[in-house]
Write a structure and sequence with these properties.
The structure is a single chain. With 353 residues, the protein is an alpha/beta fold. The protein folds into two domains: 1-110 and 265-353, Isopropylmalate Dehydrogenase, CATH 3.40.718; 117-260, Isopropylmalate Dehydrogenase. It is built from twelve helices and twelve strands. A ten-stranded mixed beta sheet has the order 2-1-3-12-11-4-5-10-8-9, sandwiched between helices. It is globular and about 55 Å long. The structure holds nicotinamide-adenine-dinucleotide, 3-isopropylmalic acid and manganese (II) ion. Nicotinamide-adenine-dinucleotide is lined by residues 14, 18, 73-76, 78, 89, 93, 263-264, 282, 285-291, 297-298, 301.
Length: 353
């Protein structure tokens, strides 16, 4: 029982269409006695274009005091001259992940019965595809370390330095082992590119080996990120928990989404396991300017992100009820496309009923 302080950031494009559906389902799934005390934050492209503000410090401070965050998507149409790339992505989304210490970016992938994978039956063989990517969320090439020299000249040099600290790698690898040890198959795959990125690779490799000795029941293997693209498309069943750095994890999880029913189903949690700040739940997808404003977006990824939020806040039964309702909805999906709101209504009705 109790009230959950929920920060809601719809953001841009289809973020504004999928978040209301996730909220409908959250309300329907809330255990009795649990209420959401919502605060909507006007952040994203519209605010930036209107005021020049991306994430004022006072707003960040207020968000730090919330219980959890539900976010839709941020970012404009690539190439929009009014919205330079990175302004919102770095200034809003990554700023929240860094400032709130979301070092575990949790991205589960399952092929649900009824969801359509582009992989053929000869690949899937009726076997379960059910893995989770533990993507590092606060380091790697995302920290903004780097720069550009002699910009615009033929002698231009640009660098993006990947930051990998023992502190940062150890805490995310440990979290991944902990998750692996609680799953039936107890398997962890480190994904990296240790054959080329030898400095960062050595840190990830060494800490994974060291922590492995504390988890004798977890089977550990290693795969280069390029080969991971092969295995995700020819035998995705082999994965259980994948742990990887920030950029590899970004790329791996879009492919993981595509093979398990599409980006419209892929949920994520930016988790602060130490609970020093609120965690943030959001679909893996972006603002999809190509379909925005047309009620064409699938809200399921946002709805399943709501399930991760419920689970994180200690309501696993409510989270399971949302997942079950999504499963039932997927099994029932016909050829006729439904509006974003119709999908949300149908899933909310299943949760309530
Ligand atoms: P995107 O995920 O927005 O879209 C990729 C493709 O998937 C598009 O064809 C889109 O129509 C489709 N798609 C995405 N979500 C869908 C849904 N729920 N239902 C049906 N189809 C869906 O990626 P992009 O086009 O590379 O990026 C667009 C903008 O979003 C950029 O500004 C980018 O920086 C930003 N972005 C933000 C986030 C985030 O907020 N977490 C994530 C990715 C991209
Ligand atoms: C994601 C997005 C973000 C990322 C961008 C928009 C900063 O692609 O959440 O996957 O790279 O993490
Ligand atoms: Mn991404």
């Amino acid at each position: 029982a109790g009230s959950i302080d929920l920060a809601v950031i719809e953001g841009d494009g289809i973020g504004q269409e999928v978040v209301p559906e996730a909220l409908k389902v959250l309300e329907a799934a809330a255990p009795s006695g649990v209420t959401f005390n919502r605060t909507a934050y006007d952040l994203g492209a519209e605010r930036y274009l209107r005021t020049g503000e991306v994430l004022p410090d006072s707003v960040l401070e207020e968000i730090k005091g919330q219980g959890a965050i539900l976010l839709g998507a941020v970012g404009g149409k690539p190439g929009d001259p009014n919205l330079p790339p990175g302004i919102l992505e770095r200034g809003l989304l990554l700023k929240l992940r860094f400032a709130l210490d979301h070092y575990v970016n949790l991205r589960p992938s399952k092929i649900y019965p009824g969801s359509v994978s582009p992989l053929g039956d000869h690949v899937l063989k009726g076997e379960d595809v059910d893995f989770v990517v533990v993507r590092e969320g606060t380091e790697g090439p995302y920290t903004g370390n780097g720069g550009a020299l002699r910009v615009g000249t033929p002698a231009e040099v640009a660098t993006e330095v990947s930051v990998n600290t023992a502190f940062g790698v150890e805490r995310v690898v440990r979290d991944a082992f902990e998750r692996a040890s609680k799953r039936p198959r107890k398997k962890l795959t480190l994904v990296h590119k240790t054959n080329v990125l030898v400095n960062a690779g050595a840190v990830w490799w060494r800490l994974t080996q060291e922590i492995a000795s504390e988890y004798p029941d977890v089977t550990v293997d290693y795969m280069h990120v390029d080969a991971t693209m092969i295995h995700l498309t020819v035998n995705p069943q082999r994965f259980d928990v994948i742990v990887t750095d920030n950029l590899f994890g970004d790329i791996v999880t879009d492919l993981a989404a595509a093979i398990t029913g599409g980006i419209g189903l892929a949920a994520s949690g930016n988790v602060n396991p130490d609970r020093t700040y609120p965690s943030m739940f959001e679909p893996v997808h972006g603002s999809a300017p190509d379909i925005a404003g047309q009620q064409k977006a699938d809200p399921t990824a946002a709805i399943l992100s709501g399930a991760l939020l419920l689970d994180h806040l200690g309501h696993p039964d409510a989270a399971a009820a949302v997942e079950k309702a999504v499963l039932a909805d997927l099994a029932d999906r016909g050829a006729e496309p439904r509006k974003t709101s119709a999908i949300g209504d149908a899933i909310a009705a299943r949760v309530a009923g």
